[in-house]
Amino acid sequence: QQHLVESGGGLVKPGGSLTLSCVVSPYTLEYYAVGWFRQAPGKEREGISCISPSGAGNPDYADSVKGRFTISRDNTKNTAYLQMNSLTPEDTGIYYCATYWTYLSNCGRNAELFDSWGQGTQVTVSS
Question: Which is nearest to 22 in space by CA: 79, 77, 64, 62?
Protein backbone atom coordinates (compact mmCIF):
# COMPACT_ATOMS: atom_id res chain seq x y z
CA GLN A 1 0.00 0.00 0.00
CA GLN A 2 0.95 3.58 -0.53
CA HIS A 3 1.32 6.23 2.16
CA LEU A 4 -0.46 9.47 1.26
CA VAL A 5 -0.20 12.89 2.88
CA GLU A 6 -2.54 15.72 1.92
CA SER A 7 -1.82 19.39 2.48
CA GLY A 8 -3.07 22.79 1.40
CA GLY A 9 -6.39 22.93 3.16
CA GLY A 10 -7.53 25.90 5.17
CA LEU A 11 -10.07 28.65 5.55
CA VAL A 12 -11.03 30.57 2.43
CA LYS A 13 -13.77 33.05 1.60
CA PRO A 14 -16.49 32.25 -0.92
CA GLY A 15 -15.20 32.76 -4.42
CA GLY A 16 -11.66 32.03 -3.35
CA SER A 17 -9.24 29.34 -4.42
CA LEU A 18 -7.11 26.64 -2.85
CA THR A 19 -4.72 24.05 -4.18
CA LEU A 20 -4.46 20.74 -2.38
CA SER A 21 -1.42 18.50 -2.68
CA CYS A 22 -1.09 14.78 -2.13
CA VAL A 23 2.40 13.36 -1.70
CA VAL A 24 2.61 9.61 -2.18
CA SER A 25 5.26 7.16 -1.00
CA PRO A 26 7.10 4.80 -1.13
CA TYR A 27 6.19 3.43 -4.56
CA THR A 28 6.34 5.37 -7.78
CA LEU A 29 3.04 7.01 -8.56
CA GLU A 30 3.16 6.29 -12.27
CA TYR A 31 1.22 3.02 -12.00
CA TYR A 32 -1.52 4.36 -9.76
CA ALA A 33 -4.73 6.19 -10.44
CA VAL A 34 -5.35 9.04 -8.03
CA GLY A 35 -8.68 10.21 -6.72
CA TRP A 36 -9.86 13.06 -4.56
CA PHE A 37 -12.79 12.61 -2.23
CA ARG A 38 -14.48 14.84 0.27
CA GLN A 39 -16.80 14.41 3.21
CA ALA A 40 -18.94 17.27 4.40
CA PRO A 41 -20.44 17.30 7.89
CA GLY A 42 -23.45 15.03 8.00
CA LYS A 43 -23.01 13.88 4.42
CA GLU A 44 -21.65 10.80 2.73
CA ARG A 45 -18.19 10.75 1.23
CA GLU A 46 -18.19 12.01 -2.35
CA GLY A 47 -15.73 11.09 -5.06
CA ILE A 48 -15.05 14.39 -6.74
CA SER A 49 -12.28 13.67 -9.21
CA CYS A 50 -9.83 11.08 -10.50
CA ILE A 51 -6.91 10.96 -12.89
CA SER A 52 -5.33 8.03 -14.68
CA PRO A 53 -1.78 6.85 -13.92
CA SER A 54 -0.21 8.66 -16.85
CA GLY A 55 -2.52 11.64 -16.68
CA ALA A 56 -3.54 10.96 -20.26
CA GLY A 57 -7.14 11.13 -21.26
CA ASN A 58 -9.79 13.22 -19.62
CA PRO A 59 -9.92 13.29 -15.83
CA ASP A 60 -13.28 12.53 -14.33
CA TYR A 61 -15.16 15.06 -12.20
CA ALA A 62 -18.33 15.03 -10.18
CA ASP A 63 -20.97 17.42 -11.47
CA SER A 64 -20.70 19.38 -8.24
CA VAL A 65 -17.14 20.48 -9.05
CA LYS A 66 -16.97 20.29 -12.84
CA GLY A 67 -15.64 23.50 -14.34
CA ARG A 68 -14.30 24.73 -10.99
CA PHE A 69 -11.83 22.04 -9.88
CA THR A 70 -8.83 20.70 -11.78
CA ILE A 71 -6.95 17.53 -10.90
CA SER A 72 -3.37 17.06 -12.00
CA ARG A 73 -0.31 15.03 -11.17
CA ASP A 74 3.46 15.14 -11.39
CA ASN A 75 4.76 11.61 -11.37
CA THR A 76 8.36 12.83 -11.11
CA LYS A 77 7.43 14.29 -7.72
CA ASN A 78 5.06 11.49 -6.72
CA THR A 79 2.49 14.20 -6.11
CA ALA A 80 -1.08 14.87 -7.17
CA TYR A 81 -2.93 18.15 -6.95
CA LEU A 82 -6.44 19.49 -6.80
CA GLN A 83 -6.86 23.09 -7.88
CA MET A 84 -10.12 24.45 -6.51
CA ASN A 85 -11.59 27.71 -7.79
CA SER A 86 -14.83 29.59 -7.18
CA LEU A 87 -15.27 27.90 -3.84
CA THR A 88 -18.63 27.99 -2.09
CA PRO A 89 -19.66 27.07 1.46
CA GLU A 90 -20.98 23.80 0.00
CA ASP A 91 -17.36 22.83 -0.73
CA THR A 92 -16.58 22.74 2.98
CA GLY A 93 -15.40 19.37 4.20
CA ILE A 94 -12.47 17.07 4.74
CA TYR A 95 -10.66 16.31 1.51
CA TYR A 96 -8.90 13.00 0.99
CA CYS A 97 -6.67 11.69 -1.73
CA ALA A 98 -6.51 8.00 -2.54
CA THR A 99 -4.80 5.65 -4.99
CA TYR A 100 -5.19 2.28 -6.63
CA TRP A 101 -2.87 0.36 -8.91
CA THR A 102 -4.04 -0.05 -12.48
CA TYR A 103 -2.64 -0.62 -15.94
CA LEU A 104 -5.64 1.04 -17.53
CA SER A 105 -5.49 4.51 -19.06
CA ASN A 106 -8.65 5.64 -17.35
CA CYS A 107 -9.88 5.94 -13.78
CA GLY A 108 -12.99 5.73 -11.66
CA ARG A 109 -14.34 7.73 -8.71
CA ASN A 110 -15.83 4.72 -6.94
CA ALA A 111 -14.28 4.61 -3.48
CA GLU A 112 -14.25 0.82 -3.55
CA LEU A 113 -11.52 0.94 -6.20
CA PHE A 114 -9.08 2.72 -3.90
CA ASP A 115 -6.96 0.85 -1.38
CA SER A 116 -4.67 3.56 -0.03
CA TRP A 117 -5.97 6.72 1.60
CA GLY A 118 -4.56 9.82 3.20
CA GLN A 119 -5.64 11.25 6.53
CA GLY A 120 -7.42 14.21 4.96
CA THR A 121 -7.11 17.97 5.02
CA GLN A 122 -9.84 20.33 6.15
CA VAL A 123 -11.25 22.88 3.74
CA THR A 124 -13.59 25.51 5.14
CA VAL A 125 -15.29 28.05 2.91
CA SER A 126 -16.81 30.83 4.94
CA SER A 127 -17.05 34.59 5.00
Answer: 79
The H or E element containing residue 26 is: none
3-class secondary structure, 29? helix
**106 sits in which H/E element:** none
pLDDT (tens place) for every residue of the chain, 127 residues total = 899 999 999 999 999 999 999 999 998 899 999 999 999 989 999 999 999 998 877 899 999 999 999 999 999 999 999 999 999 999 999 999 999 999 888 898 999 999 999 999 999 999 9
- Rounded Cα distance between 69 and 87, Å, is 9
Q: Which long-range contacts (CB under 8 A, 24 or more apart) does 67-74 make?
A: 69/36, 71/34, 71/36, 73/29, 73/34
User: Do residues 82 and 69 lie in contact, with contact meaning Cβ atoms separated by under 8 Å?
Assistant: yes
